[in-house]
Write a structure and sequence with these properties.
Blueprint (H helix, E strand, L loop, with lengths): L1 H27 L6 H19 L2 H24 L7 H23 L4 E2 L7 E4 L2 E4 H23 L1 H11 L1 H6 L4 H26 L2 E2 L5 H14 L4 H20 L7 H15 L14
Antiparallel strand pairs: 1-4, 2-3
Helix pairs in contact: 1-5, 1-8, 1-9, 1-10, 2-3, 2-4, 2-8, 2-9, 3-8, 5-6, 5-8, 6-8, 9-10, 9-11, 10-11
Protein backbone atom coordinates (compact mmCIF):
# COMPACT_ATOMS: atom_id res chain seq x y z
CA UNK A 1 0.00 0.00 0.00
CA UNK A 2 2.78 2.40 0.96
CA UNK A 3 4.63 1.56 -2.25
CA UNK A 4 1.51 2.29 -4.29
CA UNK A 5 0.95 5.63 -2.54
CA UNK A 6 4.59 6.61 -3.08
CA UNK A 7 4.37 5.50 -6.71
CA UNK A 8 1.25 7.60 -7.30
CA UNK A 9 2.95 10.53 -5.56
CA UNK A 10 6.08 10.27 -7.71
CA UNK A 11 3.93 9.69 -10.79
CA UNK A 12 2.02 12.88 -10.05
CA UNK A 13 5.30 14.80 -9.97
CA UNK A 14 6.40 13.26 -13.27
CA UNK A 15 2.98 14.04 -14.73
CA UNK A 16 3.22 17.73 -13.78
CA UNK A 17 6.62 17.98 -15.46
CA UNK A 18 5.46 15.96 -18.46
CA UNK A 19 2.50 18.31 -18.92
CA UNK A 20 4.96 21.14 -19.54
CA UNK A 21 6.76 19.12 -22.20
CA UNK A 22 3.61 17.94 -23.92
CA UNK A 23 1.85 21.33 -23.90
CA UNK A 24 4.84 23.09 -25.46
CA UNK A 25 5.25 20.36 -28.06
CA UNK A 26 1.55 20.18 -28.84
CA UNK A 27 1.21 23.93 -29.38
CA UNK A 28 4.66 25.22 -30.38
CA UNK A 29 5.83 21.94 -31.99
CA UNK A 30 9.17 22.05 -30.19
CA UNK A 31 10.87 20.05 -27.44
CA UNK A 32 11.93 22.34 -24.61
CA UNK A 33 14.77 20.33 -23.08
CA UNK A 34 15.48 23.22 -20.71
CA UNK A 35 12.19 22.42 -18.96
CA UNK A 36 13.89 20.17 -16.42
CA UNK A 37 16.17 23.01 -15.37
CA UNK A 38 13.14 25.21 -14.68
CA UNK A 39 12.45 22.71 -11.90
CA UNK A 40 15.94 23.29 -10.56
CA UNK A 41 15.40 27.06 -10.59
CA UNK A 42 12.14 26.59 -8.69
CA UNK A 43 13.92 24.44 -6.11
CA UNK A 44 16.60 27.08 -5.58
CA UNK A 45 13.88 29.74 -5.28
CA UNK A 46 12.30 27.66 -2.51
CA UNK A 47 15.71 27.20 -0.85
CA UNK A 48 16.49 30.93 -0.94
CA UNK A 49 13.06 32.03 0.30
CA UNK A 50 13.10 29.51 3.16
CA UNK A 51 16.53 30.76 4.22
CA UNK A 52 15.11 34.30 4.46
CA UNK A 53 11.73 33.75 6.14
CA UNK A 54 11.46 30.03 6.99
CA UNK A 55 7.86 29.59 5.87
CA UNK A 56 6.78 27.23 3.06
CA UNK A 57 3.84 29.19 1.61
CA UNK A 58 5.82 32.32 0.56
CA UNK A 59 8.51 29.96 -0.78
CA UNK A 60 5.99 28.21 -3.02
CA UNK A 61 4.55 31.52 -4.26
CA UNK A 62 8.02 32.93 -5.01
CA UNK A 63 9.01 29.73 -6.85
CA UNK A 64 5.90 29.83 -9.04
CA UNK A 65 6.41 33.52 -9.88
CA UNK A 66 10.12 33.15 -10.68
CA UNK A 67 9.62 30.03 -12.82
CA UNK A 68 6.70 31.60 -14.69
CA UNK A 69 8.68 34.75 -15.47
CA UNK A 70 11.70 32.65 -16.47
CA UNK A 71 9.56 30.53 -18.80
CA UNK A 72 8.11 33.62 -20.48
CA UNK A 73 11.55 35.23 -20.81
CA UNK A 74 13.06 32.04 -22.25
CA UNK A 75 10.34 31.78 -24.87
CA UNK A 76 10.62 35.46 -25.79
CA UNK A 77 14.42 35.65 -25.96
CA UNK A 78 15.56 32.19 -27.01
CA UNK A 79 12.71 30.50 -28.89
CA UNK A 80 10.54 33.16 -30.53
CA UNK A 81 13.34 34.36 -32.88
CA UNK A 82 13.62 30.74 -34.07
CA UNK A 83 9.93 30.31 -34.79
CA UNK A 84 10.53 29.52 -38.46
CA UNK A 85 13.91 27.82 -38.00
CA UNK A 86 14.65 24.11 -38.39
CA UNK A 87 13.80 21.75 -35.49
CA UNK A 88 17.52 21.04 -35.08
CA UNK A 89 18.29 24.72 -34.44
CA UNK A 90 15.55 24.92 -31.82
CA UNK A 91 16.77 21.71 -30.18
CA UNK A 92 20.35 22.98 -29.95
CA UNK A 93 19.08 26.26 -28.48
CA UNK A 94 17.06 24.38 -25.85
CA UNK A 95 20.13 22.38 -24.83
CA UNK A 96 22.12 25.62 -24.65
CA UNK A 97 19.50 27.22 -22.39
CA UNK A 98 19.63 24.14 -20.18
CA UNK A 99 23.40 24.34 -19.70
CA UNK A 100 23.17 28.10 -19.20
CA UNK A 101 20.73 27.71 -16.31
CA UNK A 102 22.86 24.99 -14.72
CA UNK A 103 26.03 27.09 -15.06
CA UNK A 104 24.42 30.19 -13.58
CA UNK A 105 23.12 28.19 -10.62
CA UNK A 106 26.62 26.80 -10.02
CA UNK A 107 28.07 30.31 -10.05
CA UNK A 108 25.48 31.57 -7.59
CA UNK A 109 25.06 28.59 -5.24
CA UNK A 110 28.09 26.41 -5.93
CA UNK A 111 28.21 22.88 -7.32
CA UNK A 112 27.43 21.11 -4.06
CA UNK A 113 24.12 19.78 -2.78
CA UNK A 114 22.18 21.94 -0.31
CA UNK A 115 19.64 20.48 2.15
CA UNK A 116 16.14 21.93 1.98
CA UNK A 117 13.44 21.39 4.60
CA UNK A 118 9.83 22.29 3.79
CA UNK A 119 8.59 21.33 7.22
CA UNK A 120 8.06 18.10 9.13
CA UNK A 121 4.58 16.89 8.18
CA UNK A 122 4.60 13.64 10.14
CA UNK A 123 2.69 10.51 9.17
CA UNK A 124 -0.74 8.90 9.42
CA UNK A 125 -1.56 5.34 10.45
CA UNK A 126 -3.97 3.77 7.95
CA UNK A 127 -4.84 0.10 8.55
CA UNK A 128 -1.55 -0.38 10.36
CA UNK A 129 0.43 1.23 7.56
CA UNK A 130 2.36 4.46 8.15
CA UNK A 131 1.86 6.91 5.26
CA UNK A 132 3.63 10.26 5.28
CA UNK A 133 1.39 13.31 5.17
CA UNK A 134 3.75 14.93 2.66
CA UNK A 135 3.06 12.07 0.21
CA UNK A 136 -0.70 12.38 0.65
CA UNK A 137 -0.48 16.17 0.30
CA UNK A 138 1.62 15.84 -2.85
CA UNK A 139 -0.76 13.31 -4.37
CA UNK A 140 -3.86 15.35 -3.54
CA UNK A 141 -2.45 18.64 -4.85
CA UNK A 142 -1.18 16.96 -8.04
CA UNK A 143 -4.69 15.65 -8.72
CA UNK A 144 -6.22 19.08 -8.08
CA UNK A 145 -3.70 20.80 -10.39
CA UNK A 146 -4.21 18.28 -13.19
CA UNK A 147 -8.01 18.49 -12.95
CA UNK A 148 -7.78 22.29 -12.91
CA UNK A 149 -5.56 22.29 -15.99
CA UNK A 150 -7.93 19.96 -17.82
CA UNK A 151 -10.89 22.22 -17.04
CA UNK A 152 -8.89 25.27 -18.12
CA UNK A 153 -8.05 23.68 -21.48
CA UNK A 154 -11.56 22.44 -22.19
CA UNK A 155 -13.76 25.14 -20.64
CA UNK A 156 -12.05 28.50 -21.17
CA UNK A 157 -11.56 30.72 -24.19
CA UNK A 158 -7.78 30.67 -23.79
CA UNK A 159 -7.84 26.88 -23.58
CA UNK A 160 -9.91 26.65 -26.75
CA UNK A 161 -7.40 28.95 -28.45
CA UNK A 162 -4.60 26.63 -27.34
CA UNK A 163 -6.38 23.67 -28.90
CA UNK A 164 -6.89 25.64 -32.11
CA UNK A 165 -3.20 26.62 -32.33
CA UNK A 166 -2.25 23.02 -31.65
CA UNK A 167 -4.38 21.78 -34.55
CA UNK A 168 -3.40 24.40 -37.15
CA UNK A 169 -1.32 27.44 -36.28
CA UNK A 170 -1.88 29.19 -39.61
CA UNK A 171 -5.66 28.72 -39.55
CA UNK A 172 -5.80 29.89 -35.92
CA UNK A 173 -3.91 33.05 -36.88
CA UNK A 174 -6.38 33.71 -39.72
CA UNK A 175 -9.23 33.38 -37.22
CA UNK A 176 -7.76 36.23 -35.16
CA UNK A 177 -5.97 34.21 -32.48
CA UNK A 178 -2.74 35.76 -31.20
CA UNK A 179 -0.48 32.75 -31.81
CA UNK A 180 2.58 34.29 -30.13
CA UNK A 181 0.51 35.18 -27.09
CA UNK A 182 -0.88 31.65 -26.85
CA UNK A 183 2.59 30.12 -27.09
CA UNK A 184 3.83 32.50 -24.38
CA UNK A 185 0.87 31.51 -22.18
CA UNK A 186 1.73 27.86 -22.76
CA UNK A 187 5.32 28.42 -21.61
CA UNK A 188 4.03 30.32 -18.57
CA UNK A 189 1.67 27.51 -17.55
CA UNK A 190 4.28 24.81 -18.17
CA UNK A 191 6.86 26.70 -16.09
CA UNK A 192 4.37 27.23 -13.25
CA UNK A 193 3.68 23.48 -13.27
CA UNK A 194 7.43 22.87 -13.12
CA UNK A 195 7.64 25.13 -10.05
CA UNK A 196 4.89 23.13 -8.34
CA UNK A 197 6.71 19.91 -9.28
CA UNK A 198 9.92 21.27 -7.74
CA UNK A 199 8.13 21.92 -4.44
CA UNK A 200 6.62 18.43 -4.38
CA UNK A 201 9.97 16.92 -5.35
CA UNK A 202 11.68 18.68 -2.43
CA UNK A 203 9.02 17.31 -0.10
CA UNK A 204 10.11 13.82 -1.12
CA UNK A 205 13.87 14.42 -1.56
CA UNK A 206 14.87 17.47 0.55
CA UNK A 207 18.03 18.50 -1.28
CA UNK A 208 18.82 20.80 -4.20
CA UNK A 209 21.75 20.91 -6.63
CA UNK A 210 22.41 22.48 -10.06
CA UNK A 211 21.65 19.15 -11.77
CA UNK A 212 18.49 18.45 -9.77
CA UNK A 213 16.19 18.77 -12.77
CA UNK A 214 18.21 16.61 -15.16
CA UNK A 215 16.97 13.09 -14.36
CA UNK A 216 13.38 14.06 -13.36
CA UNK A 217 13.20 16.07 -16.60
CA UNK A 218 14.36 13.12 -18.71
CA UNK A 219 11.98 10.72 -16.95
CA UNK A 220 9.09 13.16 -17.32
CA UNK A 221 9.89 13.47 -21.02
CA UNK A 222 9.86 9.68 -21.18
CA UNK A 223 6.46 9.72 -19.48
CA UNK A 224 5.18 12.26 -22.03
CA UNK A 225 6.37 10.08 -24.92
CA UNK A 226 4.90 6.93 -23.35
CA UNK A 227 1.53 8.64 -22.93
CA UNK A 228 1.71 10.27 -26.35
CA UNK A 229 3.66 13.49 -26.80
CA UNK A 230 1.21 16.33 -27.37
CA UNK A 231 -1.60 14.60 -25.44
CA UNK A 232 -2.43 16.13 -22.04
CA UNK A 233 -4.28 13.02 -20.75
CA UNK A 234 -1.40 10.95 -22.12
CA UNK A 235 1.14 12.93 -20.11
CA UNK A 236 -0.87 12.29 -16.95
CA UNK A 237 -1.23 8.57 -17.65
CA UNK A 238 2.43 8.23 -18.64
CA UNK A 239 3.63 10.04 -15.51
CA UNK A 240 1.50 7.97 -13.14
CA UNK A 241 2.51 4.73 -14.88
CA UNK A 242 6.21 5.56 -14.74
CA UNK A 243 6.05 6.60 -11.09
CA UNK A 244 4.32 3.37 -10.01
CA UNK A 245 6.74 1.21 -12.00
CA UNK A 246 9.73 3.03 -10.50
CA UNK A 247 8.56 2.58 -6.91
CA UNK A 248 7.60 -1.07 -7.43
CA UNK A 249 10.97 -1.87 -9.00
CA UNK A 250 12.81 0.05 -6.25
CA UNK A 251 11.00 -1.99 -3.57
CA UNK A 252 12.16 -5.32 -5.07
CA UNK A 253 15.86 -5.89 -4.23
CA UNK A 254 16.54 -7.93 -7.37
CA UNK A 255 15.10 -5.23 -9.67
CA UNK A 256 16.20 -2.12 -7.74
CA UNK A 257 19.61 -1.70 -9.47
CA UNK A 258 17.92 -1.88 -12.87
CA UNK A 259 15.00 0.47 -12.19
CA UNK A 260 16.09 3.16 -14.66
CA UNK A 261 16.89 0.58 -17.34
CA UNK A 262 13.42 -0.96 -16.89
CA UNK A 263 11.76 2.45 -17.26
CA UNK A 264 13.55 3.28 -20.49
CA UNK A 265 13.07 -0.31 -21.69
CA UNK A 266 9.33 0.20 -21.23
CA UNK A 267 9.58 3.29 -23.43
CA UNK A 268 11.27 1.27 -26.19
CA UNK A 269 8.68 -1.51 -26.01
CA UNK A 270 5.72 0.88 -26.12
CA UNK A 271 7.17 2.81 -29.06
CA UNK A 272 7.75 -0.47 -30.92
CA UNK A 273 4.13 -1.51 -30.39
CA UNK A 274 2.53 1.95 -30.62
CA UNK A 275 4.87 4.63 -32.02
CA UNK A 276 2.49 7.47 -31.12
CA UNK A 277 2.34 6.46 -27.44
CA UNK A 278 -0.55 5.10 -25.43
CA UNK A 279 -2.92 8.02 -26.07
CA UNK A 280 -1.21 9.79 -28.95
CA UNK A 281 -2.91 10.42 -32.28
CA UNK A 282 -1.52 9.81 -35.72
CA UNK A 283 -1.51 13.08 -37.68
CA UNK A 284 -1.51 13.41 -41.42
CA UNK A 285 0.88 15.98 -42.75
CA UNK A 286 -0.09 17.81 -45.93
CA UNK A 287 2.69 18.03 -48.51
Amino acid sequence: MNTLINGLCLGGIYALIALGYTMVYGIAKMLNFAHGDIIMVGAYAVFTTLSLMDHPIPAVIVAVIICTVLGIATERVAYRPLRGASPLAVLITAIGVSYLLQSVSQLVYGAGTRPVSIGNWGALEVMGISISISSLLTLGLCVVIMVGLTLFITKTKAGTAMLAVSEDRAAASLMGINVNGIITLTFAIGSALAACASVFYLMQIPAVSPTLGAMPGIKAFTAAVIGGIGSIPGAMVGGILLGIIEKICSSIPVLAPYTTAIEFGLLIVILMVRPTGLMGKTRREKV
